[in-house]
């Protein structure tokens, strides 16, 4: 079996430096922003140690442009981006396909995705595991998948759950509790 060649590009966005890697079949990895190109490259190569810098294909350039628009706060749809998820478990692929249907400014929960896939609520943990192992965060919008009760839940990207919150705020999603219905009299 021939070894898959991966190329990558590190690029700057309004949110920081991102990284993208691809094969002939599609995007294989996406690194959410860090403060430096070096840190992004290090994180990307940790997952794809044999990847080499390369000249992006037109499809990769389109995805990079979309990522830049996203971090400028422009509504962006990544559902048409061609992915190479070779080596991913079939159930994880199903979870990722369901997560890709959660659009800009919307959220769902681990349990709701499990239910959508026709598995019981106990599979919500599996959904969470898939989100934590998402190789192309943002393109598969794991940041839009919340814990039960709309709680932020975990996020394995740089910055953790605060990065997840910032991304959702960029999309107009406010996770703060509503103001109290009854105001204080102020004395």
TrEMBL record:
Signal peptide: none annotated. Keywords: DNA damage, DNA repair, Methyltransferase, Transferase. It comes from the Bacteria. GO terms for molecular function: methylated-DNA-[protein]-cysteine S-methyltransferase activity. One of its GO terms (biological process) is methylation. Its EC number is 2.1.1.63. It catalyses: a 6-O-methyl-2'-deoxyguanosine in DNA + L-cysteinyl-[protein] = S-methyl-L-cysteinyl-[protein] + a 2'-deoxyguanosine in DNA; a 4-O-methyl-thymidine in DNA + L-cysteinyl-[protein] = a thymidine in DNA + S-methyl-L-cysteinyl-[protein]. InterPro entries: MethylDNA_cys_MeTrfase_AS, MethylDNA_cys_MeTrfase_DNA-bd, MethylDNA_cys_MeTrfase_DNAb, MGMT_N_sf, WH-like_DNA-bd_sf. Residues 91-173 form the Methylated-DNA-[protein]-cysteine S-methyltransferase DNA binding domain. NCBIfam families: ogt. This is Methylated-DNA-[protein]-cysteine S-methyltransferase.
């Amino acid at each position: 079996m021939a070894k898959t060649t991966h190329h990558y590009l590190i690029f700057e966005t309004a949110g920081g430096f991102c990284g993208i890697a691809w094969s002939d079949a599609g995007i294989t990895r996406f690194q959410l922003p860090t403060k430096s190109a070096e840190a992004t490259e290090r994180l990307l190569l940790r997952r794809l140690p044999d990847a080499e810098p390369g000249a992006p294909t037109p499809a990769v350039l389109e995805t990079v442009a979309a990522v830049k628009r996203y971090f400028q706060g422009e509504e962006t749809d990544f559902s048409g981006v061609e992915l190479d998820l070779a080596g991913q478990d079939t159930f994880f692929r199903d979870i990722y396909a369901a997560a890709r249907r959660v659009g800009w400014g919307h959220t769902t929960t681990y349990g709701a995705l499990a239910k959508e896939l026709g598995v019981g609520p106990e599979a919500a943990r599996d959904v969470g595991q898939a989100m934590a192992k998402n190789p192309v965060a943002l393109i598969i919008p794991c940041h839009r998948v919340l814990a039960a009760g709309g709680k932020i839940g975990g996020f394995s990207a740089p910055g953790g759950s605060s990065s997840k919150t910032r991304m959702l705020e960029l999309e107009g999603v406010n996770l703060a509790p509503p103001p109290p219905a009854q105001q204080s009299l102020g004395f």
